[in-house]
UniProtKB/TrEMBL annotation:
Residues 13-61 form the HTH gntR-type domain. The lineage of its organism: Bacteria, Pseudomonadati, Verrucomicrobiota, Verrucomicrobiia, Verrucomicrobiales. The keyword RNA-binding does not apply. Keywords: DNA-binding, Transcription, Transcription regulation. The keyword DNA-binding applies. InterPro entries: Tscrpt_reg_HTH_GntR, WH-like_DNA-bd_sf, WH_DNA-bd_sf. This is GntR family transcriptional regulator.
Length: 113
């Protein structure tokens, strides 16, 4: 049996990503302090999770003092596909399963580098 240990920011990012994909969060994230209290984690963990989600295309990069905007599901898919252009120039021929696999590989690669 293997144990899958993930960092708190990664767990927070995965939770928020799931909520975004299922439509629970649609336009903006609440402030970092409010989100940290809501999820029962520290503000630095929320900040790191936001950075993950910006890198993955789920959120727009926040500017000082502005709300953090959630991208539409269509925008998320386009951003992920355009990021994969480096991995596969023939992305238009990829099946949906292949795209998901490559997105997963890209996410793991980002975690390590």
């Amino acid at each position: 049996m293997s144990i899958n240990l993930q960092s708190t920011p990664r767990l927070v990012a995965d939770q928020l990503k799931s909520e975004i994909e299922h439509g629970s969060r649609t336009k903006f994230l609440p402030g970092q302090l409010k989100l940290a209290k809501e999820l029962g984690v520290s503000v630095p963990s929320v900040r790191a999770a936001i950075r993950y989600l910006v890198d993955e295309g789920y959120l727009e990069a926040p500017k000082n003092g502005q709300k953090i905007r959630i991208r539409s599901p269509q925008g998320i898919r386009k951003n992920q596909a355009s990021n994969l252009l480096i991995i596969s120039p023939k992305r238009d021929r990829l099946s949906e399963l292949s795209l998901e696999l490559l997105v997963g590989i890209e996410e793991r690669w980002r975690e390590h580098f």
